[in-house]
Specification:
Layout lengths: L3 E8 L3 E8 L2 E5 L3 H37 L6 E14 L4 E13 L4 E16 L6 H15 L20 E18 L5 E18 L5 H11 L5 H5 L12 E16 L4 E12 L10 E17 L3
Antiparallel strand pairs: 1-2, 2-3, 4-5, 4-11, 5-6, 6-7, 7-8, 8-9, 9-10, 10-11
Length: 308
Amino acid sequence: MGWTKLVFAQNDSAGPGISLVACGFKQKVKIQSFCLALAARASRAETSELKMRKLFVVALLLTLSACAFAQQDYVARYDVYTGYSYLASPDVNLSQRGFNTQLGFNATRWLALGVDYSIQFGKGTLVARDLKPAYANELNQLVAAGAAGQLAPFGFPAAYFAGYKLYAPFDATTQTYTAGPQLNYRHFKKITLFVHPSIGAIHENIAISSHNDPFVGNIVIPALLAEQPVAGALGITSPVLKTLRPNDTTYFYGVGGGWDYNATKHFHLRADIEFVHVFLYSNLLANSRNSVRLSVGPTFSFGKNVTR
């Protein structure tokens, strides 16, 4: 591989330099003093640029902090909100979409009083396990009777129930009514955070359908309504349902919160989410249900400035 050594020498004609001796031949590599000066200048420039970058980042953070944490100088006395709402009740496989509106009165900068109304439309499905045990057993017995061939006189041979799953879809219209306080946090200029209890009344109408399933349309629904001749043949004496369009009204409770993005003094964009517990159709369903409502839309504020 050969050998290599560095020899530091004085060259009178060329000034200070470094000579490289390798494998018996000499090659002079000269480093001029101006190269050292140039490197020092570049180092100083890099240091200055780094300082400027740090100062820029610090200034940017200070500016953003000033904008974010500045107090809101105007809080209107009244708020009107209207927007899109989505209501989900996973326990009954129900998803609904609709409309939500809120009217608010800012008693102070941190306390508001208001009312809330929403209406949603959607579809869900009921299965036997969603009903009270007595009704669920009745439906399961119908399917078992069919699988045993006992419903052949009604046009449903045992083969019809091979792998059969019984369910009934329904359309639902749900309305909610709420009134109460709301706590607002206004320590950000562009964002208002809020939290509120969700306690109110709920009214729901449903319409049960057979979804083109002959067994549901010709056997299950007549059995639930105790209609003849199906009820008599199956020994059913009392109806589970009085109508295929039942409705119910009850209370719900929970908590909600969200934020307003303050685009201007009088125009805001709101996002509100609520988690509530409700027990609709308690005479029919086995369990209560948990629901989530998400609402998004514009808010308009007006009235004199609330200073305290």
